[in-house]
Amino acid sequence: MLDDGSSIFSIIALMVLAIFQMVTLLSKGRVASPPSFRTLVVFFLAMALSEWISFSLALWLLALLSFRALREYLSLVDIRLEDRWGILASYLSIPCMFYLIHIEWYGFFIIAIPVYAFLLVPFFVALGGRSQGIVFSVGVLDFGLFFFVFCVGHIAYLLFYSARITLLMIVAITCAGWIHKALKSRPLRLKFLLQLAVVFPLCTGLASWTAIPMGHSAILGVLIPFSVCLGRFTLKELEEDLGIRADRLQPGRGRTIEGLKSYLYTAPIVFHYLRWFLKWGDL
After folding, report:
1. Which end of the chain is more exposed for a tag (fewer CB within 10 A), N or C?
2. What is the Cα–Cα distance from 40 to 276, expressed in whole angstroms?
3. Alpha carbon distance 144, 151 (integer Å)
4. For residue 90, what is the DSSP state?
5. pLDDT tens profile 138-167
6. Closest residue by Cα to residue 150 from 36, 263, 32
7. Residue boundaries of the structural domains of the chain
């Protein structure tokens, strides 16, 4: 069923982002788009496609985002040539994962990566025939699968249940992420408090629009800033280990990972909280 509220907002957001992109191009480098810009375009475009055309198109658009993030991650890690079968298996897990969302097989979706992929990837890595470094390679591939396939998949599954809630989550997480980034080296507790001051009223103020009970909206207003702080703090260490520098982000060299950083922890937490307490599994 068409959700006019979320779809119209998504179209307006895409128009605003398109205008901003035009300004950045005309400025010849004087105005730079934030790393999350392209990620936001993908999210809003996915929501618009889901409501106006087809959820399947939106789903596979998010699958392409997942592929881009995983490819960028694997291009930055010191992976061995012998791990090519494990890399191939990792890439093939993306269409498998998103197909499970497409056919609404939640039971298999939730264990596909943490159980079956985590068991099969070591086997495919072992096919390379070189045991030295195999533990590191398995860890690298499993880590990438969890964050850039499994966690991104939760955004797609949330969109399947509710475009309005997905829209609220994207806006709230984006605001929290921008605040966190703007404060840079300030204490983590200060970042959390300022994010809370923005996200909490946003979640509770839109409770009736999203149809989330006020009590759960208030909890989400706290849960989202907390998980954004947790995720950005943790993934910042990942970026440093991969050699990603915030002042030198380039396509394929950290831009996609930086753009997704605020969402990777938060999306699964929000999805499972709502699915449990709103009884989505009973629909």
Report:
1. N
2. 27
3. 10
4. H
5. 999 999 999 999 999 999 999 988 888 998
6. 263
7. 4-282
Helix axes 152-161, 84-102, angle to 10 degrees: 10
Q: Which two tokens stand for residue 7?
A: 């779809």
Q: Which of 72-86, 194-208, 264-278 has the lowest mean pLDDT?
A: 72-86
Give the separation between CA 45 and CA 7, rounded to whole angstroms. 10
Q: Which residue has the tokens 């989550």?
A: 169
For residue 137, what are the contacts with CB-CB under 8 A and spacing of at least 6?
A: 79, 80, 83, 86, 125
Q: What percent of the chain has pLDDT over 70?
A: 85
**Cβ–Cβ < 8 Å for 97, 112:** yes
Q: Collect all residues with Cβ–Cβ distance below 8 Å to 64 and sequence separation of at least 6.
A: none
> Per-residue pLDDT tens for 264-278?
999 999 999 999 888
First to last CA, the chain: 15
Q: What is the per-residue pLDDT across 228-240, written as a single tens digit (0 to 9) for each?
A: 999 888 888 887 8
| Number of other CB atoms surrounding residue 124 within 10 Å | 19
- Cα–Cα dist 17/33, whole Å: 10
Query: How far out from the chain centre does Cα 208 lie?
Result: 25
Contact (CB, 8 A) for 123 and 36: no
